[in-house]
Amino acid sequence: MLSVQNLNVTFNTRKGVVNAVEGISFNLKKGEILGIVGESGSGKSVTCFALMKILDQTGVIKANEIVYSGMDLQNASEKEMIDIRGREISMIFQNPRNAKQKAIEALKAVKIKNPENRYYSYPFELSGGMCQRVVCAIALACDPRLLIADEPTTGLDITTQKAVMDLIKDLIISRNMSSIFITHDLGLASEYCDRIIVMKDGHIVEKGLTHDIFTSPKHPYTHKLVNATPRPGKSIRSLLPSEIKKQEVQHTIQKETIIEVRNLSKFFPGQFGPIHAVKNISFKIKKGESVGLVGESGCGKSTTSGILSRLIDASEGEIIFDKQNISSLTSKNFSKNPIRSDIQMVFQDATESLNPRYTARQSISDPLKNLTNMNNEKINTKVIEASNLVGLPLNLLDRLPHQLSGGQKARVGIARAIILSPKLLILDEPTASLDVSIQAIILNLLVDLRAKLGMSYLFVSHDLHVVQLLCDYIIVMKDGVIIEQGNSHQIISNPKENYTKSLLEASPKPPKLTKAS
After folding, report:
1. Helix crossing, 498-505 with 158-174: angle to 10°?
2. Which DSSP category does 96 fall into?
3. DSSP string, 5-18
């Protein structure tokens, strides 16, 4: 169906020509799902953007052959490509919130609940999972024969992720389509792809059958990615490459409470009546403790974390932080309170959380400029230290958000949050868009910082394997209420609620690595 031979993509920039993709070759058979995996900046998305000819104006495409069902895409005119896009080749993009609903029937096809009502909803009124289903509906509206899915489940909870991928796979099979699945989540790729291409720095380093790639990777880079993928039985240090692996440090959980939530509720006005996002929840986080908050999209996780970080005002209830009642402080006034530096947050959507006019350096330094009296020289030193900690190359510090990949923007957000060494760090899906190898580094960094600085974490995540690795205590939410909570081992090994069991069952389980590189 698709043949790509010796594809090269370059971008003309102020600093010269950048080689984004070099010498890429692959074929896609009818009815096949081909996974393209690799770290941020490896060229995964650029490769598929080139196939659809939707690169920026500075992008230049050269290839020996790009042929789709007998059509020469490389030499096709823009008028011809407009006819091909959507009708023949369609794409699910990484960021679903820029899409618009098309039709109620399309929403029904992707199993949106109450599609007649949701037809009138704006993207910001939908959960991440609902937005992603809408994007699927748009991509499939014209019955394409080739579907390109670019990180279609980034940021989604584990059950929604499985539902979206099952939906895409079922539609591909029922419509006899082919698909290219771009992802940094090797666990998902292992369950849904027939073959896998591994990319690094614009090159293909390895390709083969999915089972072979996971059980017997030949290239050291592939082995590194597979090893860094969380799964049952892995320790947090075992995710790291052997050359940087070190002994895990132990953290101390104190008896004192850093934050207590009492009967917290949050209501939002809705078109069809009040929306009860959080309903009368109570819990505590001790000093030095890491608490995981898990649940499906729309269960109230992000709203809860927003309230605790004092970015959203609660409708009812109390928040006691370090023995001080901060409930009466509005989100607007809290930004000027000295406690602001003690509570920091890493946001789920890295793109939306960054000022598009700020460079990475400006974004990371912003908390220091607003909440401290440091001089510029010291601020710059702290920015460099934070960037190194999160694995952000220093040559990216003067780039704007649109010049960074999704993973790089996520690293900027994490660096910005940890630069003040807060007492409580609230992390809302902080590793959802990160490469598995960078995720391993960030998780281990969080472990080290927790032990060194005694920070407490509220870790919101859809990945229960990650939660188990990092968290001492787990809270499970559904429909705005807490349905189960307990120590991490108890929740993972012996959950009481069927809902918790379903979260565990939905987690990807990649084949076991049996051969070292």
Report:
1. 60
2. G
3. EEEEEEEEETTEEE
